[in-house]
Amino acid sequence: LVFSPLQKQEVCGNLTLQHHMLEPVQRIPRYELLLKDYLKKLPEESPDRKDAEKSLELISTAANHSNAAIRKMEKMHKLLEVYERLGGEEDIVNPANELIKEGHIQKLSAKNGTAQDRYLFL
Fold it and tell me: Domain DH: where (predicted)?
């Protein structure tokens, strides 16, 4: 295991930069859970109730946005992998394109009914 000079500092806890960059993303779901738990225990007549509900609504929106952005990046990464596997076909790399499914299929010959193995990208 090789550590960079920055990682070796005690304040970094021997964690990589990637680990530290994940912390803000991981906080959003924690805040959402904390607010949900807080609202369960908060009396209905509490003056803090409206602010807590609004906060939960905002953090839930942020969590949904963050999750959607992560899914979109994962799909684009998968599409780029397909692009590389196909030898760099230029027309596949397009933000409008989306990899829906991939896998082995068998093509049946119309002439003699024999099966031919194929790999399909949809």
Answer: 1-69
> Which residues, 6+ apart, have CB-to-CB distance to 114 below 8 Å?
108
Class of domain 1-88: mainly alpha
Contacts (Cβ under 8 Å, ≥6 apart) of 117: 104, 105, 106, 107
Other beta carbons less than 10 A from residue 94's beta carbon: 9
pTM of the model: 0.57
Q: Specify whether the CB–CB gap between 100 and 120 falls below 8 A.
A: no
Q: What b/e string do you get for 16-30 counting C-beta neighbours within 10 Å, with b at 16 or more? A: eeeeeeeeeeeebee
Question: What is the domain partition of the chain in residue ranges?
Answer: 1-88
Instruction: Note whether 62 and 82 are within 8 A (CB).
Output: no
Residue 100 three-state SS: coil
High-pLDDT (> 90) share of the chain, %:
30
